[in-house]
Amino acid sequence: MSSILAYPHDTSRDRAVPETISLLIVSPNAKLRGDLLSNLDSNRWLITAAASGAEALETLESGQVSLVLLDPGLPDLRTDDFKDLVHSQYPDVTIVPINPHTGRPVVTAPSPDSTIFEILRKLEGSAPSRAGNAGSPLRFQDDTSALGGIPGFIGAAPSVQRLCAMLRLVAPRDTTVLVTGESGTGKDIVARALHQLGTRRLKPFVVINCAAIPEALLEAELFGYVKGAFTGALQSRIGRIHSAQGGTLFLDEIGDLPLGLQSKLLRFLEQGEVQRLGCTDTLRVDVRVIAATNSNLRKLVQDGGFRADLFYRLSIFPVEVAPLRERMEDLGLLASSFLAKYCPHHVTLSLEAIELLKQHNWPGNVRELRNVMERASIMLGNEKEIRAHHILL
């Protein structure tokens, strides 16, 4: 597969592109900022740079920025939080993630009304590739390569590419999606990506972990209650379902939902209505539902622990996230991305460290790898390369 970005036919390609594009480079890596600043044509773009999320938001307040090149390793904000803030406060600003080591843009799927294709064409060949000569042309990665084509999900393995293709198809719809996979594979990232790629991305994304809330409180959390519904209900409150109005409700660990609440959830899914505790009135809600589980729901249905009708209602569009041991070709890419997050300076992975990582079976999946790389970044001290003795499995 070519690494050149293939531009699909789109009517937006025929639109006029502003002669001057105001571009903001956001990266804690001073060398990377300097490389991009020195190689981008300042006669064609108004270029500024920021070392942190807070500094970038301050620059965006000027209202002059149209494109942000974003290093995912922000020192003060999670990447998703930064993106959410920008999308909500500056909806006309386009964000393009960049590889924290090479500066290469990683393009996911831009919106049809964006001039992103034209902007990236102008950028092509203007920024350095730190893997080669300082002045070598910058090539754009295909949307199914480094980051798998969906926000926050890293991987180029065939299973990841198939998953991303399915997610891009279903994201613009309101179809209920059931995400399955072992613990630590990134099901929550898949759910958030579906929300960000969908038509509801500017509306709330509400998460409720069905396994983390006691059964006695879970119904009130989901559906809300009115004043006096139970001891301690001193005022009325809407539930998590209602608070997701217009947006997405993510039901994590749905396999742990108590059997007694499953019928009420099914009614909400079928009728689009919720009834608060202590009240006979129903409230209409417009919510897209994504559920996730590491349980075998089919077996739970057979054993009587999960309603069959709810299972079939949730699994209209099932997707499975592969465990890390089945996508080991992504291990180096994932490890490097975590290093970029935890190390303030440019750090590389030695071949011996990669080989050691590949010998492990990773029962905790990507979450375990993230923890291992955080420990390695601490063990590293002021060194510049992760070696085998830094890896504590």
Molecular structure report:
It is built from 14 helices and 15 strands. The chain has about 400 residues and is an alpha/beta fold. The strands form five sheets. A five-stranded parallel beta sheet has the order 6-9-12-5-13. The two termini are about 35 Å apart. The chain has helices at about 30-40, 55-60, 80-90, 115-125, 160-170, 185-195, 215-225, 240-245, 260-270, 295-300, 310-315, 330-340, 350-360, 365-380; strands spanning about 20-25, 45-50, 65-70, 95, 175-180, 205-210, 225, 235-240, 250, 275, 280-285, 290-295, 315-320, 350, 385. Strand 3, helix 3 (about 80-90) and strand 4 form a beta-alpha-beta unit. The radius of gyration is 23 Å and the shape is globular. The chain has three domains: about 10-140, Response regulator (Rossmann fold, 3-Layer(aba) Sandwich), CATH 3.40.50.2300; about 175-320, Rossmann fold, CATH 3.40.50; about 325-390, Helicase, Ruva Protein, domain 3. Helices cover about 35% and strands about 15% of the residues.
CA-CA gap between termini: 35 Å
Strand element count: 15
In DSSP terms, counting alpha (H) and pi (I) runs of 4 or more, how many helices? 14
Enumerate the spans where pLDDT stays under 50 for 5 or more consecutive residues.
1-19, 108-118, 121-148
CATH architecture of the largest domain: 3-Layer(aba) Sandwich
- List the helices and strands in order: EHEHEHEHHEHEHEEHEHEEEHHEHEHHE
Percentage of residues in DSSP E strands: 5-15%
Envelope shape? globular
* CATH class bucket of the largest domain: Alpha Beta
Roughly what percent helix?
Answer: 25-40%
